[in-house]
Amino acid sequence: MSGEVFNWRDFLGCWQEEWVPREDEDAEDQDGEDEDGARTFAPLGTPGADQAAIAAAEERLGRRLPPSYREFLAVSDGWRVEQTAGIYRLGGAADIDWFQDPYDLTPLYEENLGDDPRREDVLLAGMWRRALRLETESDMSHALLDPGDTDKGGEWALYVYKGWSGETPDRYPSFRAYMEAMYRSFHADRAGRPDFVNATTRAQDSRVDEARLLALRGRYEEALPLLEEAMSFGRPRSAVMLSQLRHLLAPAGSPGYGDLVADPRYLPDMLPLEAMAPASGAWRLGGDDHWLGMMTARGVDRKTAEAVLSALRDGTHRYAPPGSWGRAVAEARESARWGETDAAWRTLRDALPHWEAPGPLLIAPIGLLADPVLGPLVTPERGREVLATPRAGQTGPAPEPVPGLDPPGLQWLTEPAVHGQPLDGYRSIWVEGVEPARLPALIGEEGAELSAPVDLFRALRRIPRPREREGVEPWEDRAVVAVGRSSGKWAFAFDGHSQHRMNKLFLSPAAAAATSGRAVVVWRDPKSAFPGDHPSAFHLSVAERGEELYAFTVRGTDIQRSGAIPEALDPAHLFRPGDTEPVREQRALAALQTELGLSLPRFALTRGRLATFTTRSWTRAPQAGEGYAYLTFSLLRQRP
Question: Which of 12, 221, 280, 629 has its CA 20 to 30 A from that of 381?
């Protein structure tokens, strides 16, 4: 009913024919029964006004009425609209009049305009004194047509002001748009009635079926408007399908799956999604008990909800669907947990056509989003790729693959990271030919073990400083490092959030790590915030089979070196006088990639999830005659 040609008589006739009270209303509007015994109801409208009556109203008001309202009056001189909007009845041509701002709302809205107001805010502030009031029965609400807010076709915007709500008025671009919305609202309020079946409900349900098939065939862009329209009519199944499409298009959004979360077929996908907010600490409505109570009210067993919430909170939750898709998910997780996120996504992409829906209401593998390791991989671009891939036995063209997110090498370390700034200081160790799980035994503190994969940015900010831990000496520099695999043959441990400085007690862990092959250590130590106190430094050390082969440390213009450094890594060549610090750093990182094949996975280290452990100290104990000091700075908030 949104085409260019609009038939008010057919539209209003359909509304009258379909009208029944809501389930929470009594049947006082029932007028009787027809000859077949069916209920009949009082008319919603009245006979249309003739052109003379409409012209008389316009002469009285001093304005020609907008086209869609004029056409409406000619078919029905007034109408009973949906009560939930606060407006009960719209008057006819003889009833309408100027609103004239009886509540003096204009100053209230004008004082909030500010120095550079938006056009829509200016229009709203001026609407109260120039609007035409349409309603004759309402609950402290008004339907106001604004002649100052018009479109190219001469239509006036209609505002619904619910005085009891304290909210900004709802705006509709025209009277026709308002009536179409009220018709959809009328349907949505009765969608739960089993006897509310008519041509409109059947047509909308057919669109939902069509949208489901389109979505499974990868044609989600065609499915979206069908589901959006069906949801506006309150049709069952439309909202949950639409939520899945929207959730994959904006993976950071909130789910909206209602009572379907308790259905055994869909619970493994949907309950973890519902638990993500409270598990992350973003839930502010009464804590865990409130959320658990909500899930119980929806029909979820409390112990099941508690277990899912706990698994998400400690990072042990696993999305584990059945079949070949489930096997691909497990393989992808194994890649992603070590930082090989692009390889993990390729595995998922190849297996997507084999995904099977556990029931007719699931149209996409949304359970991926709640997996602590795989969920972060689903960017909006990859979410669209999922939705554009035919699946669940349907066929269609495959989408163009989304490019990988990890650049080669190390130079990305000098670029702005996900939080807008380059990594200021960082240090990393690569060990050749070993699995990442072996790194805690090689360079970890006593008893070190890998954690579950964690959000590095959030987790590492909460790590206590070494001297705050019992048994750690003040001079020690134990690093909490993220662990993974790079370039196929290197295991790495990376610290990109360290506040420690490279000092004279520094002892490279390269030799300790190189028990059976090569190990490489790189440390970029940023310039001190205090002028002249601590220039920036760049360190490289390479060891093999327990022996350091070569090393250098560049601090400002001073270069310390040892061993036979390859020409390609000669610090005198890499750190040329006169070059800016970023240029020198980029040249050094490029040489490390070319000469040693080093790389680090940007996505995993900035936006993904990796396991961590705590290393042994990167500094040795002070020897006789050596001193050691440290300063602590604390920010204190002054109480008012």
Answer: 280
Of the chain, the percentage scoring pLDDT greater than 90 comes to: 74
Strand partners, 454: 610
Residues paired with 89 in a beta bridge:
80, 137
Which residues lie closer than 8 Å to 340 by C-beta, 6 or more apart? 484, 485, 601, 604
pTM of the model: 0.86
Of 452, 498, 415, 419, residue with least CA distance to 312: 452
**Residue 271 above 60 pLDDT?**
yes
pLDDT for position 636: 47
At 512-570, the pLDDT tens digits run 999 888 999 999 988 765 555 678 899 999 999 999 999 999 998 899 999 999 999 99
Q: What are phi and psi of 548, to 5 degrees?
A: -75, 130
pLDDT at 485 over 70: yes
Instruction: Check pLDDT > 90 for residue 583.
Output: yes
User: Which are the contacts of 452, defined by CB distance < 8 A and separation ≥ 6?
Assistant: 314, 315, 316, 372, 611
Coil, helix or strand at residue 473: coil
User: Which residues contact residue 107 at a Cβ distance below 8 angstroms, ignoring those fewer than 6 apart?
Assistant: none
Q: What is the DSSP string of 251-285?
A: TTS----GGGGGSTTTHHHHHHHHHHHHHHT---S
Q: What is the 3-state secondary structure (H, E, C) of 137-166?
A: EECCEEEEEEEEEECCCCCEEEEEEECCCC
Rg (CA), the chain: 34
Tell me which residue has tokens 């096997």: 327
* Backbone torsion region of residue 433, taken as left when φ is above 0, otherwise alpha when ψ lies between -120 and 50, otherwise beta: left
Q: What is the mean pLDDT of the chain?
A: 89
> 404-426: per-residue pLDDT in tens?
999 999 999 998 765 556 667 89
Burial zone of 310 (CB within 10 Å; 0-12 exposed, 13-18 middle, 19+ buried): middle
* Burial of 146 from C-beta contacts in 10 A (0-12 / 13-18 / 19+): buried
Instruction: List the Cα angle 532/536/539 in 5-degree steps.
Output: 145
Indicate the burial class of 121 (C-beta count within 10 angstroms; 0-12, 13-18, 19 or more): middle
The number of C-alpha atoms within 13 Å of 229 and in the hemisphere containing its C-beta is 18
